[in-house]
Design brief:
The structure holds two protein chains of two kinds. Chain A is mostly helical. Chain A has two domains: 58 residues; 74 residues, no CATH class. Helices cover 64% and strands 0% of the residues of chain A. The longest helix of chain A has 22 residues. In chain A, 36% of the residues are buried. In chain B, helix 2 runs parallel beside helix 4 and helix 4 runs antiparallel to helix 5. The longest helix of chain B has 50 residues. The termini of chain B are far apart. The relative contact order of chain B is 0.18. Classes of the chains: A mainly alpha, B mainly alpha. Chains A and B meet through helix 1, helix 2, helix 3, helix 4 and helix 5 of A and helix 7, helix 8, helix 16, helix 17 and helix 18 of B.
Chain lengths: 174, 508
């Protein structure tokens, strides 16, 4: 829910053409191209099969390609997106990519370590790391809350729901 | 009727009542958190329901569903920031009431109105859904194919402000839906065996709704906290009741039919209800300053339309809102073949769901009216913890599907896509519905053409299919005419939706 005031501010912040949108257009062209390439590697189904495995991929790939080109044209003509609003969102400032990068890093660490360390440990790191990235500076409390959540959900899933989450390095301890 | 009674019998066992209660409490607790709408609530809590038996899971899910919806409207009223477009009106009038010291009454009329609307709409659902399902079962693959095209088209082009962005989302979703080996050959799997079964829809939904949203909020986190209005026990006096009951009923009458249409959604009926109440009210001057009718009507319309969306969902297997899409994912997760045969093959469970909707709705009223002050406290949760918690539970949910770190990588990749979509104003709904319906669309097309031995004209050989294509053509014409009439809005104007809506409403 915006008012007119932040809009004017936002306009000053952005150049007339949203250059980043060319990136999205390029992504669509590449994705569409790849879907078309992938479709071309598929072989025909049975002769009496009316819809071959590559039929729909060709349609989808072509559409993505066309939409990417359309988006690029629209962008050049000054089309700008309406970024999404929300309860905790303040669009009057620019995009804080540092926080997003940190969060993505935390998620990647979780992916890299979860098989080895197990959810009970990486979950706690995930929570504490995300809280840190989002501006919390109470280390001890963040880790304590994270550990309580991760061990709690591990037992909750194991005992309450009967879903054994792999324990990783703590196998036998938990 | 017997089926309905059986459904109640299944839903009313002490064990299932417990699950319904847990569902309502969990749903409200998560739904009331700022930044979490009903769809995200369902996506986050979905894994919890997988472990219990199918009937308990459905009943718990019904509780989560209503709890999430109610939690969302509480947030709107107390924070003046709608979690989704259907609660825009609730946020306007409700927050004005709250600021004028009538937060309790606003919450009460929203809760009781939701209950009234939900109950009436569920009864309507009992009557309409089986009738529609009976009709649909007699249809062939061509008609079903046409209906799916209509649903995709409607969700993509009719809702949302930029048609091009709607189609971008749709085709991205269809591309994701292609992944896998369902046709016997590996499509878009990048040679990765873990992709052979396709991308789990739970992972897609959690990534888009939870990770994408959390990253997006993180990039724009409000540095100063929002003003939260303290709230006491919700209550209404005699005058509030007198002014509320008619709007509840009128809102219900708007909401249910719109929800049941493939392109209805909740926005149009809430706006219609607001406009109607303003016109009929004896206190039109109060509108925009916190009129109780302006909360009662739209909130009832919102809830009734949510029940209405279950008609196409249960009778046709077609989801038309984000919430319904997650619900379909849930039903498939419980092992149901969704589609026209659902109500025949799983009559007992469908009726258990239909009965539990009423039970969940009742529980919601009993539990939530007294607990409103506690829920309001949840709004004060520190934002780093809130969004760290969302990332935590989203990862847990995606991981618990298969215990594969690979799923977490997919979660992040699609989450980044979700972030980019929010940045570029691309709607999420067409994508998720494309992922769900894409494979089914291919299946129906194959079936139809197999029967006709490749003759394409079979696609318009059934009267229903012809009518549906006619409707699509009409929508296209209407869009074209609209486009010509208002040639080019100022391109860069991020003109707030709300402003235009208010303009539309104010001349009354």
């Amino acid at each position: 829910m915006t008012t007119t005031e932040p809009n004017t501010e936002r306009r000053d912040l952005h150049p007339a053409v949203d250059k980043a949108q060319y990136g999205l257009a390029a992504f669509l062209v590449i994705a569409g191209g790849y879907v078309l390439y992938d479709a071309s590697t598929l072989t025909k189904g049975f002769d009496d099969q009316p819809v071959h495995p590559y039929t729909i991929p060709y349609v989808v790939g072509a559409a993505l390609l066309a939409l990417g080109i359309l988006l690029a044209i629209a962008t050049a003509r000054g089309d700008r997106p309406e970024a999404e609003e929300g309860e905790d969102i303040d669009l009057t400032h620019g995009t804080d990519l540092r926080t997003v990068g940190l969060l993505a890093g935390v998620l990647i660490i979780n992916i890299a370590l979860i098989d080895w360390l197990g959810w009970a440990i990486t979950g706690a790191l995930l929570f504490a790391g995300s809280a840190f990235a989002l501006g919390s500076r109470t280390w001890v409390r963040d880790i304590a809350v994270g550990a309580a959540l991760s061990v709690g959900t591990w037992y909750g899933f194991y005992v309450g729901l009967g879903i054994p989450i792999p324990a990783g390095i703590l196998d036998g301890v938990l | 009727m017997d089926l309905l009674l059986d459904g109640f019998a299944a839903a009313l066992t002490p064990e299932n009542l417990l699950f319904a209660t847990i569902g309502v409490i969990l749903g409200t607790a998560v739904g009331v958190l700022p930044g979490i709408g009903p769809a995200m609530t369902l996506a986050l809590l979905l894994p919890v329901t997988y472990s219990v038996g199918a009937d308990s899971a459905i009943i718990m899910f019904a509780g989560i569903y209503y709890g999430g919806m109610y939690g969302g409207s509480t947030t709107s009223i107390l924070l003046n920031t709608p979690g989704e477009s259907s609660s825009v009106i609730t946020a306007i009038e409700g927050n004005k009431m709250a600021k004028a010291g009538r937060a309790s009454q606003a919450l009460a009329t929203a809760a009781i109105g939701s209950f009234v609307a939900g109950t009436i709409a569920t009864v309507a659902l009992w009557i309409v859904a089986p009738t529609v399902a009976d009709l649909v079962v007699t249809l062939g693959a061509p008609s079903y194919f046409a209906l799916m095209v209509l649903a995709l088209f409607a969700v993509t082009a009719v809702l949302g402000s930029s048609k091009m962005r709607g189609f971008i989302a749709l085709f991205l979703g269809l591309a994701i839906g292609l992944v896998g080996t369902s046709t016997g050959q590996a499509r878009l799997t990048f040679g990765e065996p873990l992709l052979a079964d396709g991308i789990d829809i739970v992972v897609v939904a959690v990534a888009l709704f939870a990770i994408g949203e959390a990253l997006w909020v993180a990039a724009h986190l409000r540095r100063k906290p929002l003003e939260i209005i303290p709230v006491g026990q919700p209550w209404m006096n005699k005058d509030d009741w007198r002014r509320s009951w008619k709007p509840w009923l009128r809102g219900t009458a708007y909401g249910f039919p719109f929800g049941a249409l493939p392109a209805g959604g909740a926005e149009i009926p809430t706006f219609l209800s607001y406009a109607t109440e303003k016109k009929l009210s004896k206190h039109p001057e109060e509108f925009g300053k916190g009129a109780i009718e302006g909360v009662a009507g739209p909130e009832a319309a919102n809830n009734a339309s949510a029940a209405g969306t279950l008609v196409p969902l249960l009778a046709l297997g077609l989801p038309t809102t984000a919430t319904a899409a997650i619900m379909l994912v849930a039903l498939q997760g419980y092992g149901f073949q969704t589609g026209p045969t659902l109500m025949d093959q799983h009559a007992d469970l469908v009726w258990a769901l239909l009965a539990s909707l009423v039970i969940a709705n009742t529980l919601l009223l009993i539990i939530n009216l007294p607990m409103a002050p506690i829920w309001a406290k949840l709004l004060r949760i520190p934002r780093p913890y809130l969004y760290a918690g969302i990332l935590f539970f989203a990862s847990l949910g995606a991981y618990s599907v298969n215990f594969q770190a690979f799923d977490l990588a997919l979660l992040l990749a699609i989450g980044v896509l979700g972030f980019a979509m929010r940045r570029f104003g691309i709607p999420v709904l067409p994508l998720i519905i494309g992922v769900i319906l894409g494979p089914k669309l291919e299946e129906q097309l194959t079936t139809a053409l197999k029967i006709s031995q490749g003759d394409v004209s079979t696609l318009w050989s059934e009267p229903v299919a012809v009518v549906v294509y006619g409707v699509i053509a009409l929508l296209l014409v209407a869009m074209a005419v609209n486009g010509l009439r208002a040639p080019k809005e100022p391109p860069a104007e991020p003109d707030t939706e709300l402003d235009t809506d208010e303009k539309e409403l104010s001349p009354r």
